[in-house]
Amino acid sequence: MQRVQKQRGFTLVEALVSLTVLALAMTGLFSLLVHNSRLNKSEQMKAETQANARNVLSIVVAKLRSAGWDPLGTDLFNGLTLDTNTGDTVAEITVRADYHTAGTPGTPDGLADQVDEVIVFRHVNNQILWDNDDDGNFDVLAVNISNDADGDGTIENMFVPDSTTDPQQITVQITAVSPVIDPITRDFSRYTVTSDVFIRKDL
Predict the structure, then answer these.
(1) Taking the alpha carbons of 40, 41, 46, 49 in that order, is the dihedral positive or negative?
(2) What is the pTM of this model?
């Protein structure tokens, strides 16, 4: 007589143990995916903040290096005007250079009062504004520029001259901040760049 074997399935306890192990594995995998997503977002925010600071610094420094460009040696204009009110929350600097006469690019006239020869930079309310065509209207050059390097609420001056009467060098400091809180550090991401610019005299 042939003996019939009974097929044995999972018991309820085995099924519950399997489901528990699977749930733990899925929870761990989900946590890892969420952490990696936050890490990627954090790194992307840091890269964007660094790029923002570097880009605006390069523009400001390039213009400051041209301050005082006076190829005719007339000495009829002041290449740099510093902010006279350093006690407020607005930092400002005016740059002048003799690039051309009105309507004649590349032809200096010994003055610096034409369009594109006077540039005003202003840092206010987490923005850097500039008037680069001498029309009195400011355009936004960069946003999310706090100039608060350590996050203590104190705004550092964007332009620090070595002398207030006869500046030979201007230290430009720019601190960019992320627009939202970093998901890893739970704080705003900050990045500070500085550059020392030597002011040219008559050339």
Answers:
(1) positive
(2) 0.80
Q: Which whole-number Å values give the CA distances from 174 to 8, 23, 69, 95, 126, in the listed order?
A: 72, 49, 24, 18, 11
Rounded to an integer, what distance in angstroms lies between the CA atom of residue 191 and that of residue 46? 8
CA distance 8 to 171: 81
Q: How is residue 96 written in tokens?
A: 């002048």
**Cα 66 from Cα 75, distance rounded (Å):** 15
With a pLDDT cut of 70, the percent of the chain lying above it is 94
Query: Would you place residue 2 in the very low, low, confident or very high pLDDT band (cuts 50, 70, 90)?
Result: low
Q: How far is CA 35 from CA 27, 120, 164, in A?
A: 12, 44, 50
Q: Which amino acid is at 55?
A: N
User: What does the CA dihedral 54, 57, 59, 62 come to, rounded to 10 degrees?
Assistant: -120
3-state secondary structure of 76: coil
Q: What is the mean pLDDT of the chain?
A: 87
